[in-house]
Amino acid sequence: MDFIVETSARHIHLTEAAIEALYGSGATLGVKKMLSQPGQFACTNEKIKLVGPKGELMVSVLGPARKACQVELSFTDARALGLKDVPVRESGDVAGTPGIHLVGPAGELDLAEGCIVAKRHVHMTPADAAAFGVSNGQIVSVKVDTGKGRAVVFADTVIRVSDKFALAMHIDTDECNAAAAFGEVRGEIVA
């Protein structure tokens, strides 16, 4: 059995307060396209500039609004921005992470924390987890072989189970490049 492997490029999740600070009073996030995870979407023309000690990057905003701001980067992105010690974390675990300066079309905001490299993971429903014989929080290895001479086994991949998820693995752009995982890519649990 296998599943789709999707590349999650650099992006940011914002709180309602951050949306208003960056886009103006009463601002809301427009839906450009729905993503594979139910209820999650890429926003219409809502880009944010990240300003780090060494550089700047534009990132897409993903909705809906969250309880905490979270910037998801690759290690290459973090180096380009001049950020040090950006940890690999599961989504939502931003305590004690580096902060960054945000510039939007109507304002600016300093985040005290929130920058992570997202831990690679496989989203599953409870039925998917039962079919694969895995459980929430379990660490597995996933083989990705695109036939392009760059087969990779991604060890230390966390299984995330919720009835709000759809079956898909998420990797960052550095991991995508290492595996030549361009286009439609499938992965399989091997350990």
Structural class by SSE content: alpha/beta
Number of strands: 15
Number of distinct helices: 4
| End-to-end gap | 13 Å
Q: What is the helix/strand order?
A: EEHEEEEHEEEEEHEEEHE
Please report which band the strand proportion falls in: under 5%, 5-15%, 15-25%, 25-35%, 35-45% or over 45%.
35-45%
Helix content: 10-25%
Report the C-alpha radius of gyration, rounded: 17 Å
Arithmetic mean of pLDDT: 96
Give unreliable regions as ranges: none
Which term fits the overall shape? globular
Count of domains? 2
Largest sheet: 9 strands, mixed
Q: What features would you describe in this structure?
A:
- The chain has helices at 16-23, 75-81, 126-132, 173-179, and strands spanning 3-7, 11-13, 31-34, 41-51, 56-63, 70-72, 88-89, 100-103, 108-111, 115-118, 121-124, 139-144, 152-161, 168-171, 186-189.
- It is globular.
- Strand 4 and strand 5 (56-63) form a beta hairpin.
- It has 2 domains: 9-118, no CATH class; 121-189, no CATH class.
- The strands form 2 sheets. Strands 2, 3, 4, 5, 6, 7, 8, 9 and 10 form a 9-stranded mixed sheet that branches.
- The longest helix is centred in the N-terminal third of the chain and has 8 residues, at 16-23.
- It starts with a strand and ends with a strand.
- The model has no long low-confidence stretch (mean pLDDT 96).
- With 191 residues, the protein is α/β, with parallel strands linked by helices.
- 15% of the residues lie in helices and 40% in strands.
- It has 4 helices and 15 strands.
